[in-house]
Amino acid sequence: MQLLVVGSSLGAQVTAVALASTGHQVCLVVDEIAHYQALEQGRSLWREPGLDSLLQEVQHQGLLALSSLEAWPSLRSQSYAAVFLALAPNQWSLAESITLRLGQMLPDFLLVNQSTFPVGSTEALQALLPDAQHQATVCLPDLLQEGAALAGWTRPERILLGCKTAWAEERLREILRPFNRRQDHFMVMSPREAEFTKLAITGMLATRLSFMNDMANLADALQVDIEAVRQGVGSDPRIGDQYLYPGCGFGGLSFSRDVMSLATTLEDSGVGSELLEEVLVINERQKEILFRKAWQHFETRLQGKTFAIWGAAFKPGSDRIDNAPVLRLLQALWAQGASVQVHDPKALDALAAWAGKRDDLRLCATAAEAADGADALMLLTEWKTYWSPDFEQLRRQLRTPVIFDGRNIYDPQYLQSIGFTYYGVGRQAGEKTRTTEVWR
Fold it and tell me: Which segment of the chain is annotated as a signal peptide (predicted)?
């Protein structure tokens, strides 16, 4: 089918590339000329596993065409089976103008709203179309996880679809058939329900994360190991073990923005949500947890200290630092006169652009370089390359063998046994709890 995808978001690019990889003829229209030039050269706008190579492949096969919004060709000679709209939340006016233009030019088409706009936006876009019988708007919420976006699109666990029109559902099912073969992943509901479900999912996940962070902080005070608690809580089938890992806070452009969008929606509706407001407060406070632990360990004397930081991206697999814990941590350390040496496999360019040139910031090519001569190590992003370092070498490199583990990936007992001072988030370095005893 002939398909049009509009937007420069992660969802837009993944949608365009994934659809083109199954044989659809796709035109991707990006809203900034710089983005168009990058894509034309085969460079993805997002550092996602597998995305660059698949982008180049579908371009080489002639299945993916590109256009900037300014150079958008006339649509009168085109017959698009569907138009996917994947814009940023602040681009509502652009969504309206594009929808009006499409409605005037295409007498028969399907508009698929993937953008995270306020609840009711899909219905609002439908109202802009002159022919409700032959021009339909549906909601296909973007449920992608940055760092696993392509895999999530091509092998979905579920496909939320907000749709009230039978022919629109039938057409979209056919478009997505290659990704829906093993079983029917579609969950069909009204557009408003689909929009709200997407926000509610994000709110629930954020609530679980913040709750476990709160429990981890309490575990510190009670001298309880949060890892044993996490496993016990996750073993309850009513709860499960997903999104129960405490740490130094969540970030990410889409995730954080969706939580804030849900909070705004609740506030604007007059309902309000003290729970969600507290979730956001806990998360922002949690981003400074390692700073507070360092403040206590060094007895408030951080001036002149140098800290190694492993990980700047908000999650492994991404080069983005949007709302990442590293930003709050750096600001807190710099305010106390400390210096930092940072390593990240992908996000150093983004960090350099955010921070600018500073004497108290050194970007390092390797994790070992970042640790060399530092007074302590802080781990913020659980990249696999950080899981099993040479601890003996690390201990020699650090001025003092102190590790602040913001993701609880290390074994406190082991590190303590080889001479490190270890601080996790709710972790205790006491004797391991025996879990194999049978009660008699």
Answer: none
Q: How far apart are CA 102 and CA 5, in angstroms?
A: 12
At the fourth CATH level, which superfamily is domain 202-423?
NAD(P)-binding Rossmann-like Domain (3.40.50.720)
List 419's β-bridge partners, or say none. none
Q: Which residues of the chain have pLDDT under 70?
A: 71-78, 253-257, 260-261, 263-273, 430-440
Q: What is the predicted pLDDT for the residue at 240?
A: 92
Q: What is the pLDDT, as a whole number, of residue 432? A: 47
Q: How would you label 170-180 residue by residue, b for 16+ Cβ within 10 Å and e otherwise? A: ebbbebbeebe
Give the integer Cα–Cα distance in Å for 95 and 265: 19
Find out whether 376 and 402 touch, Cβ atoms under 8 Å.
Answer: yes
- Nearest CA to 291 out of 416, 156, 404, 152 is that of 404
Q: What is the SS3 assignment for 221?
A: helix
Edge-to-edge strand ranges of the sheet holding 421-423: 361-363, 339-343, 306-310, 376-379, 402-405, 421-423
Domain spans of the chain? Answer: 2-188, 202-423
Both structure tokens of 54: 């698949």
Contact 286, 251 (CB under 8 A): no
pLDDT on residue 149 = 86
pLDDT in tens, 168-227: 999 999 999 999 988 889 999 999 999 999 988 888 888 999 999 999 999 999 999 999
Contact 72, 29 (CB under 8 A): yes
Between β-strands 2-6 and 25-30, what pairing exists: parallel, antiparallel or unpaired? parallel
The CATH classification of domain 2-188, taken from the options 2.30.42.10, 2.60.40.10, 3.50.50.60, 3.40.50.720:
3.40.50.720
The one-letter amino acid code at 426 reads G
